Amino acid sequence: MSHEILIVTESELKRTLKLGRSVNDLVEKAFAALATGEVIMPPILSMDLPMVNAEVDVKTAYIPDFEHFAIKVSPGFFDNPKLGLPSLNGLMMLLSAQTGLASAVFLDNGYLTDLRTAAAGGVAARHLAPQKVETAGVFGTGVQARLQIIAAHIERPFKKVLVWGRNRDHAEACAQDIAAEIGVEATAVDSAERVVKESQLVVTTTPSREPLIDADWMHPDLHITAMGSDQEGKNELDPEIAAQADLYVCDRVSQCELLGELRTAKQTGNWPSDQTPPELGQIITGGAAGRTSDATITICDLTGTGAQDTAIGNHALELAYSLNFGTKIKTD
Amino acid sequence: MSHEILIVTESELKRTLKLGRSVNDLVEKAFAALATGEVIMPPILSMDLPMVNAEVDVKTAYIPDFEHFAIKVSPGFFDNPKLGLPSLNGLMMLLSAQTGLASAVFLDNGYLTDLRTAAAGGVAARHLAPQKVETAGVFGTGVQARLQIIAAHIERPFKKVLVWGRNRDHAEACAQDIAAEIGVEATAVDSAERVVKESQLVVTTTPSREPLIDADWMHPDLHITAMGSDQEGKNELDPEIAAQADLYVCDRVSQCELLGELRTAKQTGNWPSDQTPPELGQIITGGAAGRTSDATITICDLTGTGAQDTAIGNHALELAYSLNFGTKIKTD
């Protein structure tokens, strides 16, 4: 059986695909599909490799409206920095939704994941952040700290960014990058409390296993997107925040109660065991109420879904076809 | 981050890698590793897609002794034949066991799976079949019917093959192919009973959902490898056979009790719920007793393991490096 597969590299993708309103739109569409119940998204295949301090996740989701479905492999090898290699890399395959034949392999080293993860934060900001955001705060100083702020700024064009990180130098570098990228005032700040109290939109992007944000710092007109916790054991928010929030939203409840902030909130009794929070897709499609006024506290708990991968993968493949990049290989 | 990934096609693999004793050895090594408990093999990620009459499985296994681990994607789109396409295809990735970086993508359309599946049957024959096999029987007329007989013939050089299939023409074509491939007398036979009664080694390779082999047909000096059932609902052996057998062996108990013949055997009380059958790897490593004499009945229940994929994938990559085939792509 002969057909062609397109092999696309990270640099080809980076040259042609960047964050923007259209990527947020695309990921919004994926969440909306999740809410309609037509998406088939099996549990994440997760392989822990303690002997090499590593883990490997495989995600997939089938969305009937999309021509292809993605299967994404995300290895995290946390000793890689000792070898001068990044901890995270990975690749994504796109298979035809009609025949299962592979159409493309994206050797993206996680770039598409970075984009779709940030765009989910953008979608959360679109639907949940106060209309007026003057200041945005970000916890963490890595790739997602930068990208989340870019994706949120598309939706809420704030003037000021406060960056908190454990390492002051990293926080300053991150602030500089953000200032250069979106042309706002961006400052590294030592006080986590100040970041929360002065911001109307906060994004947490760390792998922390202890809460970084105290429930006492909550104030009306605040939205928090917590995207750092995507694993059992991670936790960025004081669990009492779930009880205080006027609206608590998950990307996928079944994932958040295992891997997200909802896990600790439930364990500590701050989220009632008999209640199910709405999902972002339901807010988008109107199946659940969103923010009702600027003076409320909203939380969005993001763990990452295969549906986002399928959405960004389809978009990247359309780009590759239309701009004619990638290497064609006959599978015969 | 720049590194090179090797993209290898089905035809490149078919030209260079065929069944043989060394492939059986390799898969034997994978089963032995499974028995030592050092293999990490998470449950299969399985996505049912009833709206397109399809399913997609993803398997992986990490074996410390191997330089890479495989992640294999196996789509089955059962309406494909209407489009002139095979139902099964798929691809396999090899990731470094030390860094998680992808080293190769095999666009093999399931060829490596075909080999490693047949080789598991070869390993089962090596350890479980009577020493003297004059006649081998095979149920089914597809790719695995041919390959299983080739892999078993390496271990037990039988003189005669009986082929049973629902479609007489297919059975005759299969018998002809087998005769041409390994130079034995091969005959299509209408009576399933005759196939079993006249054979010392039987392999079942069908997707049947009703038993094809009756417990009444059992005789001493018989080994059956049942590899067709790899899904809930499939069933090739009369469940009473599990009770009659002197030795019942699984490739992986946790899979066989869900997907293999063991499922029905347990459901019908033909396998005691408080007993765990040995695994093929334990027979190989001496952790459990194998066949004790030619005059016994042994069964091997094969569902397919990620460990086999990792073994064949490593071998294919070594071949590609040493024979210099495949297309190198810089991931940059």
TrEMBL record, chains A, B:
A GO CC term assigned to this protein in UniProt: cytoplasm
Superkingdom, natural source: Bacteria
Similarity annotation: Belongs to the ornithine cyclodeaminase/mu-crystallin family.
UniProt-listed PANTHER family: KETIMINE REDUCTASE MU-CRYSTALLIN
Name of this chain's protein: Ornithine cyclodeaminase
Organism field: Maritalea myrionectae
